[in-house]
What we know:
Structural class: alpha/beta
Number of helices: 15
Helix content: 40-55%
CATH architecture of the largest domain: 3-Layer(aba) Sandwich
CATH class of the largest domain: Alpha Beta
Oligomer: single chain
Mean pLDDT: 85
Amino acid sequence: MDSNANHNAVAEQMQRVLYEVKRVVVGQDHFLERVLVAMLAQGHLLVEGVPGLAKTLTVKTLARVMRGSFKRVQFTPDLVPADLVGTRIYNQKMGEFNTSLGPVFTHLLLADEINRAPAKVQSALLEVMQEYQVTIAGETHKVPRPFLVMATQNPIETEGTYPLPEAQVDRFMMKVLVGYPSEEEEFVIVQRVTGAAEEVAAVVTTEELAQLQKECRKSYVDPSLIQYAVKLVAATRSPERFGLPELGRYLSFGASPRATINLIEGARALGLLRGRPYVLPEDLTDLVPDVLRHRLVLSYEALAESLTADHIVRRIMDKLPAPDKPLDTHARTEATA
């Protein structure tokens, strides 16, 4: 099978996954697309939305569709790191310590209301999100692959919540904002929830998903697009270098190189979902707000003026236009080389 046929097969398989999920989840097209991008690009998702917007339902349905294991951890102030990663337990009968593995040993982990637990608990996810392993009492244990963390946070309540450590926030590939459904979608939601339960079919195995992720890494990215991603991220650190000196007072810290990597990996996955073995500028620009919004540390001045990270990202994108679309024939040739 040639490279083009491989990429078409990936797109078809992910469309089948999406079709099955949408039999249960109504609307939320942007959110669902980002979940599939994260799965293909081996990234993690931070999701912000009020309760009742099908965030948990989406991940549970996805786990059934891909025949993967699913665990949900409700983050609370009294949670301790061992509740997440596991601990050593003394077995009196055997006279030895046994390792009890925590809920992070799964394919899809839902960290519900992650900002309700203190920083030491949130930081317990640092190693597993980056290195796909957990160290307990000096012993290293690998988590199953593929492995995806989807963390949710509620934007309404701030009482009893803790800010996420910057090191952990940076490990999330994207932060997706989930909004309310339209009236038409809500009508369908009520019909579906109050009617007979929909059964979803398992259309992809975890082994097949791992293979799809490998195919995703083979997608062609034109050097001009990598250069554009580097410029966008650099502009969040030194806006004055790109003709945006007025933004400097609003930014305490810009995005890290991990943002640039995530932009390119995500654009590859999005291009693949759209049926192409190469990336176009719109694949990259579509993802910029989701990849950058949680990585910018705003100054007190920005907060005082009610400026959001999205405002700043939009200003940067207006100033730095995307490069011209690479010639279709050139991109196809490079992708199949």
